[in-house]
Sequence to fold (90 residues):
Amino acid sequence: MVDEWMRSPVGHVRDFRLEFPAKLHFARAHSSVLASQLINDQVAVCVRKREETEAALAQAKTEIERQVLEYRIGVISSTVAWLEGLLARG
Fold:
């Protein structure tokens, strides 16, 4: 059960800052390969979420909706950059 949890990326960006570091800690304790796979899987989830949010932004009807979606895109983009930095450092 813990093994499955550790191997799965975080599904919601709002949960990322609390859940992902714990997953990464346990994945690294298990193996560097598992940690790299977790990071790559998380990048894929974030990229998909960013694309979904960009599509929603294109359909936004109000200024506040646009602002909220732009903020989410910024958060997701920063998360992807951080994850890619982790991969680059090995």
In short: The CA atoms of residues 50 and 76 lie 6 Å apart. The chain has a mean pLDDT of 95. DSSP finds four helices and no strands in the chain. Helices lie at 2-7, 13-30, 32-58, 63-89.
